[in-house]
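Cont'd.
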Amino acid sequence: DIVMTQSPSSLTVSAGETVTINCKSSQSLFGSVRQKNFLAWYQQKPGQSPKLLIYLASTRDSGVPDRFIGSGSGTDFTLTINTVQAEDLANYYCQQYYDTPYTFGAGTKLELK
Amino acid sequence: EVQLVESGGGLVQPGRSLKLSCLASGFTFNNYGMNWIRQAPGKGLEWIASISSSRSYIHYADTVKGRFTISGDNARNTLFLQMTSLRSEDTALYYCARQGWELPFDHWGQGVMVTVSS
């Protein structure tokens, strides 16, 4: 199984700051045939279902603000949130969908000062 | 508008069975793979089962393999999860989620709670 290691587990920032969340996979998520990284990022606000933010490592889902930026390739990936806003308070998860069993990182809890 | 609505959860004793449903609307159900993901109280996300758009290819997490069965009824636009031999560690909020080609889980239901306890 592909293990997803996400860091940090929690983060406390002030509104307007930039946040970086890291995600490392135990094997490459780059598909050599399709030349794509099968890595996604989700946001889960308290009491809500997860929401897809980023897929194929760097493509924002429809309606996702451009302050959310996904980057990385192979085994190392990053979610950057520029100019964090109060509404970004949530848990963030990375997930590999390169192969089953699909696996998630343990999550990063973003709290605001 | 894409909608996924889960139902069928509740309180069940260890060793018993339960069947969850996920009614899909707003998209062509048989064009998409579907998944079940669960979240234990206060914990992270755990994928547990997937079924391809053709409904021919099925995968399970080791934690539920042999006990849970995923299926889809394209005529009723409904995804199912038959759960047997339930254990206390199966207590969780169960989500169904849609998966398109080369996409992860792009739409999720609101979740249905399953509590396994005597």
